[in-house]
Amino acid sequence: MPETMRAVRQHSFGGPEVLRLDEGIPRPEPLWTEVLVRVHAAGVNPVDCKTRAGSGISPSQGELPITIGWDVSGVVESVGSGVTRFVPGDEVYGMVNFPRIGGTYAEYVTVDSRQLAFKPAALTHVEAAGVPLVALTAWQSLVSVGRTGPGTRVLVHGAAGGLGHLAVQIARARGAYVCGTAGTQQLELVKSLGIDEAYDYTKVRFEELAHDIDVVVDTVAGENGLRSLKVMRTGGVLVSLPVPPDPETVAEAARRGLRAVSLTVEGDRKDLEDITALIDAGALRPVIGDVLPLERADKAHELIETGQARGKVVLQVV
């Protein structure tokens, strides 16, 4: 292995232009319980953009320059003392070190072995890198919080988005009846996921069509929260993901016998293995839109921030 590596780093906070590819960075060494992963691909998420701009996850004082990125798919190169789950050569994927600075926009990254799972056999590294953070968020919203199962009625806002399209598939795999909102150009994608009811938010108001909803996964926020409460049945839960629900929504939910909550994703290995099982069974598949080389991380962020991305954006390293 080389003693140095390439990594996208930022020396200040700001727009996509602060992301630059640096060479000659010392390759990290795995500590106890850690593995060294040769990164094949790194997923790009909205939280990456927020952190780059200085409004997301805050690094420790004086930590700049930093390498952001939390989604990874790659191959184990070496293992630290105490690691029993993996050996060099294993193909793995996962969400790295969240909510600390992750460091996956690089050729190598060290990861606690319990944050990783074996890469789904059904996916390439590029496809797998688009899964962990959004799939874990969707899973924990629907399963851990929403207790989604047969007979549950689910509404996903932003059903064609990076998180929403996986939430639709997970809910269906759990036996739920699934409704979702999307724009006109995204309806065909949403329908291809097997959704039961798709609402074009540019033409209809979802609250005029949806009813008896048990779980709402809201990736849009704004007025969606209050509007969603009108279509829910007693005991239901609204999970607001981009931002916590506002006090008015929380109060109105309580008045209606509902819950309005937020969720911060956790790097749960068991959840990731359950997601892997769905993928390998053919019940879940990520939609990958743009694949860019590591040195174009700035372009990847532009695609997400301007709304031009369709599906997940991934950086291909190998």
Tally of DSSP helical segments: 9
What is the CA-based Rg, rounded? 20 Å
Q: Structural class, judged by helices and strands?
A: alpha/beta
What oligomeric state is this? single chain
Please report which band the strand proportion falls in: under 5%, 5-15%, 15-25%, 25-35%, 35-45% or over 45%.
25-35%
Mean pLDDT: 95
End-to-end distance: 14 Å
Query: Could you estimate the helical fraction of the residues in percent?
Result: 10-25%
The ordered H/E elements are EEEHEEEEHHEHEHEEHEHEHEHE
Description of the structure:
With 318 residues, the protein is of the alpha/beta class. It is built from nine helices and 15 strands. It has helices at residues 46-53, 125-129, 132-145, 164-173, 187-192, 224-229, 247-255, 269-280, 297-305; strands at 4-9, 20-26, 34-44, 71-79, 91-95, 108-112, 116-118, 153-157, 177-182, 197-200, 213-218, 232-240, 259-262, 288-293, 312-316. α3 packs across α4. The longest helix has 14 residues, at 132-145. It is globular and about 60 Å long. It starts with a strand and ends with a strand. The mean pLDDT is 95.
